[in-house]
Amino acid sequence: MYVCRWHFDIPFGRQAEAVKTMSAWKEEALPTVFRKAKSARLLAGHVGVSASHLVAEYDFESLGDWEEALAGMGEPRLVKHAEALAPLVVAGSQRWEILKVLG
Fold first, then answer.
1. Minimal CA–CA distance to 42: which of 34, 76, 67?
2. Which of 33, 75, 82, 102 is least enclosed, having the fewest CB within 10 Å?
3. Domain count for the chain
4. Do β-strands 2-9 and 39-44 pair in parallel, antiparallel, or remain unpaired?
């Protein structure tokens, strides 16, 4: 099992807009291209981490399942969400972090 986390920062005061956009994306992506995700959630910084820092977290059985999900991100129905989110992501802040679940 792998925990795949997409980290990114948003401009101050735009959290509600980013959460709304990510929620709309999640509604379309989870049943389709991210269908192999065992779980998904959106996290925001709270204590010791800026509230402008968001993390989209997904659990996958294998790295192949995660790669398959990423490959589907360009589907037309998801592009509109990516375009809506793009101006809310601070340039250079986004990164993926992959953790392997042990035991």
1. 34
2. 102
3. 1
4. unpaired
CATH of the domain at 93: 3.30.70.100
Dihedral sign for Cα 48, 40, 28, 69, please: positive
Write the CA distances from 36 to 10, 64, 67, 77, 89, integer angstroms: 27, 10, 11, 18, 26
Beta pairing partners, 5: 57, 97
d(CA 18, CA 77): 18
pLDDT tens per residue across span 39-49: 999 999 999 99
pLDDT of 76 reads: 86
* Structural domain that includes position 34: 2-100
Model-level pTM? 0.88
Q: In what side-by-side order are the strands of the sheet with 95-100?
A: 39-44, 53-60, 2-9, 95-100
For 16-30, the pLDDT digits (tens) are: 999 999 998 888 888
